[in-house]
Design a protein that fits this description.
The strands form 5 sheets. The protein has a 4-stranded antiparallel beta sheet with strand order 1-2-3-4, with no helix packed on it. About 5% of the residues lie in helices and about 50% in strands. The protein starts with a strand and ends with a strand. The chain contains 1 helix and 20 strands. The protein is mainly beta and about 280 residues long. It is globular.
C-alpha cells in the first residue's frame, strides 16, 4: 500500500487536525482519511479502496466552510476526483476528469490561473515507467483545466512534453502572468533531451514561449520545487535528480550521472536583478 502523499486538515470541524493518505500501492492500494479522535488515536475512513492515489489537496471548493478533498489517481482507472465534504465525516464523490490507463498521470496542483477567483488545475501526465520499455506518447504533457465557477473543469491548454512529471505555476517575472516550469523524467533522450526541463513564459491569452538550457541534461529530474531562496522577491527553482529508472537511457547520460551528476540543481531567477545583455532569465 506504498504511501505517496499525506496532507493534514480539520475535515470534520472539531478543532483537531485529521490527515489523508495516498496509498498508491501497485495491485493493492487505498485512499483514506484518518479521523483524529478524542483520545489522540485515529480512525481510518476509506474513500477509494483501490490503488493509484498519488497526490491530494484539502480545499473548500464550494465555500461552505468545510474542507473538501481532491486527489489524482494514477494507476489503472486514472483521473482526478473531488470528495465533497457533506459534514459529519461524510463525503460525496465527484469526478473531475478521467483518463485511459496509459495516460501516465504524474502530478497536479491547484492554482487560480486566470485570476477569476476560482481555483483551477495544472496537471502533468508522462509516467512512461512500465515494466518494459514503452514508446513515446504524443498525448503526454502539461494540461490546464479551468474552473467555470461551479467546479466544472475544462481543458483549455495543452503543451506536449514527453515524460512530463511535474509542473509549477508561478509569476516568475512578477508581471501579473503565471508562468510554468515543467520537468520530464522520461524525455526523448535520443532527439530532444532538453525536454527534461522547460520554462514556459506566459505572454497572456494562454500563449507561451518555451525555453530550456544545456545543463538540464546534467540530471534526471524527478522532482521540482520553487521559492524565493535569495530573498529578492522573485521565486527560484530547485530540481532534484534520481538517476535510476525503468526505461533505458543512452549510456552517455547514465555514465555521466553516475560519475559526475548533481543530486540537485538550483536555478536562480534573474528577473529581479540587473542582467547583462543576452543573459538568461534563469541561471544555474
Amino acid at each position: 500500500m506504498r504511501p505517496a502523499d499525506t496532507i493534514f486538515a480539520d475535515l470534520n470541524n472539531d478543532g483537531k487536525d485529521d490527515f489523508v493518505v495516498c496509498g498508491f500501492g501497485n495491485y493493492l492500494g487505498r485512499f483514506s482519511w484518518f479521523e483524529h479522535l478524542d483520545d489522540d488515536t485515529y480512525r481510518e475512513h476509506i474513500l477509494f479502496d483501490r490503488p493509484g492515489a498519488i497526490k491530494a489537496y484539502a480545499y473548500d471548493f464550494n465555500q461552505d466552510g468545510r474542507m473538501d478533498i481532491i486527489v489524482m489517481m494514477a494507476q489503472a482507472r486514472e483521473g482526478i476526483y473531488i470528495f465533497m465534504n457533506k459534514g459529519h465525516g461524510e463525503f460525496s464523490l465527484s469526478p473531475v476528469v478521467e483518463f485511459q490507463p496509459a495516460f501516465g498521470s504524474s502530478y497536479f496542483e491547484l492554482v487560480d490561473f486566470n485570476h477569476d477567483g476560482f481555483i483551477d488545475i495544472l496537471a502533468t501526465n508522462g509516467d512512461n515507467g512500465d515494466l518494459h520499455t514503452s514508446p513515446l506518447k504524443n498525448y503526454h504533457g502539461v494540461r490546464l483545466f479551468l474552473n467555470d465557477g461551479k467546479n466544472n473543469f475544462h481543458e483549455v491548454w495543452f503543451f506536449p512534453l514527453n515524460g512530463a512529471y511535474r509542473a509549477i505555476a508561478k509569476d516568475f517575472g512578477q508581471d501579473g502572468h503565471l508562468d510554468i516550469a515543467a520537468i520530464s523524467f522520461f524525455p526523448d533522450y535520443d532527439h530532444s533531451p532538453e525536454e527534461s526541463f522547460v520554462f514556459l513564459k506566459n505572454k497572456g491569452g494562454l500563449e507561451f514561449d518555451a525555453f530550456s538550457f544545456p545543463e538540464c541534461k546534467a540530471g534526471r529530474w524527478i522532482t521540482m520545487d520553487a521559492g524565493d531562496l535569495d530573498g529578492d522577491g522573485f521565486p527560484d527553482i530547485v530540481l532534484g535528480s534520481f538517476i535510476r529508472g525503468p526505461n533505458k537511457v543512452p549510456s552517455a547520460y547514465s555514465t555521466y550521472w553516475e560519475q559526475e551528476g548533481p543530486s540537485f540543481l538550483i536555478l536562480r531567477n534573474l528577473y529581479g536583478g540587473k542582467k547583462p545583455a543576452g543573459s538568461r532569465l534563469l541561471e544555474k
